Amino acid sequence: MAAGPGGRRGSRALSELLAGRVKKQKCTFESGQELQKAAVHLLSCHQNLNDLLLEVESSSKSTEQSGPETQNAFSESFVVSILQEQASRLGVPIGILSAKTTATNIDQICNISRESNQAALLNLEQRKKLSYLLQTVKDLLVPNAFCRLLFCQELWKMQNPPVLEVVWHLHRGNIVSLGELLESNSDTSAVVEWLCSSLCLLCKQTDSSSLDVELSGHILSDFVIMFLQNGFQQTSDLGKKVEFQKIHHICYAVLQQMLTWVLDALANEKQEDSSKLQAVKCWLNIFTVTMYKSTSFPESLQQFFIHTLTKILTYNPLLKASDAIHMQREWSFARTCPLLTTLYRKLFVAFSAEKLMCHLQQILETHEVNWQHVLSCFSTLVVCQTEAEQLVKDLLSSLLIKAFENYDMENMITAFLIARQAALEGPAVFMPYAEWFKVSFGNASGYHGSSKKALVFLFEFLSELVPFEAPQYLKVHIMHPPFVPTKYRPFLLEYITLAKTRLADLKVAIEDMGLYEDLSSTKEAVQPQSQALEDVEKAIRIFENTGKIPTSVIEASIFRRPYYTSHFIPALLMPRVLPEIPDLRIIFIDSLKRADKIPPNLYSRYIQACHSLKEKLLQAVPAQIALISERLMTVLRHSHNENEAASFIFQIQLNICAPKLEQQDQCVIDLLLTSFCQNLIAASYFNPPDRQGPCLCLFVKMICGHRHLLPALLTRLCQLIYHQGPSLNDAHVLGLAAFMIHLNESKFLIPEVNIGSQVAAAKGLSVAEYWNHLLVCRTGESIAFCMRFCTAAVAYFLCKFPSLSHNDLCKLLPSGLIKKLQYVVPRLSLEARGIGHEEEAPELSWRSLSCPSVNYMKTSICLWKQTRFQELLKEKPFQLSFREWLLFELEVQPEKDILSVSERQDFHYWALYQWYLPASSASGGCDGNLEKACGILIGTILDFSQRSELDNCGQLEKSEFSVHNRTVDPDILCRLQEVVLELGCRKTSPTGCWNDKGHFLFRIFQERLKTIGNGSAVGERLLRQQEMLLQKRILLSLPPSFLIMMCRRGKKMTLDCEDFFHFVNTELRNVCYRGCALSYDITAHFLRGLLNASLDYEEPAQAVNDVLKTCRTECPIIISSAALWWPRLEPVLCSQWKRLFGAPLAQELQRLRKCQNSATSFLSLEAEFSLSDIPWISAAFLHFTCQQQAAHGRMRDVLKRVGPDTEQLLVCLLFFSLMDLILTRLAPKQGPEVQKSLEWCLEILGCLEEQGISWLALFHSAEKGRGPYQILHSAASDQYVSLLPIAFYSLTPCFHQNLLNREQTFLYVAVDMYTQLLRLYIEGENPQRSDHGGQSLHSVKHVDSLEVITKARRFLLHSIARCPKKSFLHIQQLQNPCEEFDPEVKAALFHSSKPTVAEDFYDEPVLF
User: Fold this and answer.
1) For residues 1191 and 1184, is the Cβ–Cβ distance under 8 A?
2) Minimal CA–CA distance to 695: which of 629, 621, 620, 630?
3) Residue 278 confidence (pLDDT) above 70
4) Sign of the C-alpha dihedral computed for residues 913, 919, 922 and 923 taken in this order
5) Which letter does DSSP use for residue 855 in this model?
6) Is residue 1032 within 8 Å of residue 1042, measured between CB atoms?
7) Strands 7-8 and 652-653: what pairing?
8) Domain ranges (residues) in the chain
9) DSSP secondary structure string, 164-190?
10) What residue stretches are annotated with the Fanconi anaemia group A protein C-terminal domain (predicted)?
């Protein structure tokens, strides 16, 4: 705004200025409109128009509260009014004034950019100012207060043209299009120059911030589309007015000049700096076809791409055809500038292969071409487009036909250049030049066979090429000459003489050419000796495949005798250590000898030389090894007299997770391993493993002989492979793999290894098993390393022992390596799974494996396809079973896997449904049996989880599915759920349930538990308990309805829970919560499954009622569990029922809800207690509700309010309270305090005694099938029931005096509880005698065992003396246990039961 003494105050908003004036003087204006007019008049006298157009930000901020419509209207009216006032004062139209002012502002904004030499893009501050300015201009355009034409002219009048980004914003914002701006400048050449320089500068700035890169892309895209639309007009646009031709000329010129800039940079690639090449790379993005997908001018795009391709191929055509012949090897795809090949590929996308080839042919026929660009274009074409090979062949055929029709040398040279260039890219994309030459001219039907004139024309052409030819092409023409009739042989001989003379000048002997030399190769010619070695290897491979001596060898022995005798035979008969079983090389040599192709004396010298070499090695190697052993012994300071037998027996101890090694031992081991690896690599450079002799094997045996060194050796191998494996380079991997093979050869010299793992603690590991533990597959890195290591090891073994029989291979090769490969190779390669394109397996070559740049993925696939490897997979010891595959897969950590989620899922589906499910059980599969697959899945998950709990690292969380602080792979659990659901689809059958054996899942669980046993040892009990918890987790991971079977009994469908009930009663009940209730998760899971399963019935409510009624007697712990968890269960079950059926709740569920409501209302003093027809269920609800509401303090009042006829309720309530009392003894943290629990029991017992209610039946029914309260014992854990004697003798303070007289069975129960108490104590001292699942008195917390027994004994002895005679009627059967545990008690029973014994036999005080 206006400037003042204090400086510019433009940062203050207009509303703030006006507000300030309001505060200082009283407003005398009657309306806001009058006030605004006055303010405008005042400001117009001191207004700076340049700053005014930038005030939109302040205005917008000050009027935000008024809403967008008010804001825009205010801003527009204010700016327009100010400009109108100034325009009227100056006498010019408002549009001219606003245009000039805007141009001035843009010039000021751009000046900052020019000062910083960034003339293509603005900085953030400039963009901000420009944004405000353009917003104001848009506001001026609405009332037509801005002149576009004058604005364009003013921009060109500036001292410097505008920055390119400014022009783009004007164009993108629909203020002034680029076309309007270009039309307004009369100097076309200056406009083109400005655009090109700005575009080049823009491309150079793309390596700045990511924001600039994105912005540059948008600017290039919008401008190039505009250039394309106007520079390459479509047919429908040709009739446009003349004034539009100017834009056409500018756009065309810009694209042409930019292309020239690109080609100039590519021509001088080596001299250009990297910034310019980076800029060229940025400009090449305009040739990306997808950039134009939203446009609608395909004809213009085609014209542009055709024009570009033509200009590239005809750019600067200085090289002659002779130059091309000499230099074309340097123009192959691999050697061409990557930017140029990128440009070709982008252009190819716009055309079909046929259209592209037609255009190339047209250019070759009508233009002078740049041979480098043309030939590199053909190289790119045959490499990048699969259909190009045939099209190029067709083009060559067309060129040769025209050449021989018109005897045209240009077509001939073009055809030869293209054929040679395509052949340079290798046989995978185009036929070799030798083959093309033979096809074209090697028979009578060739292009030259029509006449003598055509033949003469061909030899004249070939003769003219001779001075410029490379040696390999002259060799092709000599070795595979054109077909010539006999009468014209002089023409051919003349040419051959000329070609040989040229080869002699080049010092290349045709006689030294190899049998299988690639004459089209771009590589430099190799020495004859090296070529001969390659020929020998190739001949042996052909001999292996055909069983016959190759024809080329026979021909060479006759027609190329010098090469055969001077190079081939010496290379074949190089002395070596001959294997015991003849290999292919020996068999091939014998075949040549029998065919008289090897002189007898030469063969004899060869055999003698091999024997001499073997003797030297046998003499030299042991001596060297002995020297190393002696020096090693000196370093380790080992005595010769130490007891070797004793040192051989010991077991090697090491910690696989934290291996520790002394510094000296590590230095020694590293030196030995380094020596082994270096010798292996050096030997592999000259010979494959089978020809390297016994040195490495003897070296490893020598190391194994130093048995005190073995712990350090195995520890160091653990560090290298288990901990550092993925970081090892290829040479290390190869060396260690070979070392492992030789170490396995000496496995009888290596003791067992204990790796410090609880899983493997039962027995030591052999060296082969030790390697299996080192080669883990847990992360993407470790899986890739495992593949590299196993591939190297197996490949080394097969190459080291190529002549071993199949049986010997199976005996010597570690099976773990093959199994690891069976897991990792299909996991990483679709080809190994039989998916996608399968190529023929090449021969396994040790040379390719030992080279520095080995590709292990390709090598592993090559190994996988080998016949010997596939035969090994058929043997039982090497077959990877479904269970083993699952264990490997469960080890993988999904978050660190090399496969994505979808890739891992695809692999699982392939392994399960295509590999293992249809496979036979003999090969580790499932025989097509889905139930068997499900069983293996469940068993393996449980085994893995058990093993994870005992993991050797000892750092794991104690969760039920933990391994390395993670859960079981959810993908594997998903596969289990899918299999279970598929099995569930056929749950019913005409004859009944799934099968006669019952629910297969619980059958699997029971079989596993049988293997664990039911011993009394603490370890066995903990293992069984852990197994139960894991099995429960499996159940929870499966659909709830899977717990229940549907059976057809006659014509009626019923729900069968018998197997689940049996599983609960025999197993889950003994690991339950609070002694008489299952955990919430399994309780809710069953009830939800029950509701889901009833959905298939006509009367779902009746089906649910039947099952819950059965639960009362067959599995009462489910009902007691429902009582405990009902506050959480009720909303879940009610909402599910409503969702499934929309009908009133099933009667049995309503009964449970009624029991809960009755207990809650009773405890809140709102109503009397409503007793159900099954007292123990009411007691369970009342007891658990009291626990949840902590009603112990008012227990006496609660018991008084229970009401009459509640004897069974109180007795059952006492039982549940006794369970809580036992809970406080076993697990104090899970229940109330001991004293409170005991008081609670005593209150209930006191109430029972006051009412004279018999309660001893709770303890009298400890034996199964006895007593009316057996159902309560069925609802409690065997562990808790076995501890009832402790609870019984905890109640003695509340026993009334008349209890002995009133209850005839009291003495029987007391003696029985006492003998059980003694049995618990003795079983704690001697667990082998346990009959109660290993439970003992010593497992009870806060209990002094001897004190409890002493008090119980004292109480019993007093009770025996005071009991009436009728109490001794059935006591005789307890005298034998008493005699075993406490003879004094037996004696007391015996004497007290006699009629003559006084009732006050004992003189001690009465306790009650």
Assistant:
1) no
2) 621
3) yes
4) negative
5) -
6) no
7) unpaired
8) 96-162, 314-431, 441-512, 528-611, 657-879, 1040-1282, 1285-1408
9) HHHHHHHHHTTSS-HHHHHHT-S-HHH
10) 1177-1384
CB 1007 within 8 Å of CB 936: no
Residue of 198, 213, 374, 377 lying closest to 281 (CA atoms): 213
Among 150-159, 236-245, 651-660, 1107-1116, the range of highest mean pLDDT: 1107-1116
The angle formed by the CA atoms of residues 209, 215 and 217, to the nearest 5 degrees, is 105
CB 1118 within 8 A of CB 1078: yes
Buried b or exposed e, range 857-875, using 16+ CB within 10 angstroms: bebbbbbbbbeebeebeee
How much of the chain exceeds pLDDT 90, in percent? 34
Q: Are 1336 and 1323 in contact (CB under 8 A)?
A: yes
What pLDDT sits at residue 848? 76
The pLDDT of residue 1268? 65
Residue 800: partners with Cβ closer than 8 Å, 6 or more residues away: 689, 690, 738, 741
- Report how far residue 597's alpha carbon sits from residue 564's, in angstroms, rounded to the nearest whole number: 10
Q: Does pLDDT of 1404 surpass 50?
A: no
> Which of 808, 743, 793, 849 has its CA nearest to residue 580?
808
Predicted confidence band of residue 162 (pLDDT cuts 50, 70, 90): confident
Query: How many whole angstroms separate alpha carbon 362 and alpha carbon 6?
Result: 75
Contact between residue 1174 and residue 1129 where contact means Cβ atoms under 8 Å apart: no
H/E element, 313: helix 298-313
pLDDT value of residue 1403 = 42
Comparing C-alpha atoms, which of 1038, 1008, 1039 is closest to residue 1026? 1008
Rounded to whole angstroms, what are the CA distances from 962 to 350, 891, 893, 965, 966? 55, 11, 12, 6, 5
DSSP at 1305: T
- CA proximity to 705, closest of 754, 658, 648: 648
**CA gap 585, 602 in Å, rounded:** 16
For the chain, give the mean pLDDT: 81
CA end-to-end span of the chain: 106
Please name which of 404, 400, 405 lies closest in space to residue 417, comparing C-alpha atoms.
400
- The C-alpha atoms of residue 834 and residue 822 are separated, in whole angstroms, by 13
pLDDT tens digits for range 286-330: 998 888 887 777 888 889 999 999 999 999 998 888 899 989 989
Q: Dig out the tokens for 1192 from the structure.
A: 């112990």
Section 343-350 average pLDDT: 92
Q: How many CB atoms lie within 10 A of CB 34?
A: 12
The model carries a pTM of 0.59
* Separation CA 167–CA 176 (nearest Å): 8
Give per-residue pLDDT as tens, 182-209.
Answer: 888 888 999 999 999 999 988 887 665 5
Bigger pLDDT: 705 or 962? 705
Contact 1044, 1089 (CB under 8 A): yes
Q: Which residues of 630-649 are buried (b: 16+ CB within 10 A; e: fewer)?
A: eebbeeeeeeeeeeeeeeee
Distance from C-alpha of 567 to C-alpha of 528, rounded to nearest angstrom: 7
Helices of type H across 964-1017: 970-984, 1000-1012
pLDDT tens track for 555-613: 888 888 888 888 899 999 988 878 777 888 999 999 999 999 999 999 999 999 888 88
Instruction: Give the integer Cα–Cα distance in Å for 782 and 863.
Output: 20
Q: Which residues, other chains included, contact 1197 with Cβ-Cβ below 8 Å and sequence gap of 6+?
A: none
**Token pair for 1324:** 């704690």
* 1372-1393 residues labelled b (16+ CB within 10 A) or e (exposed): eebbebbeebbeebbebbbebb
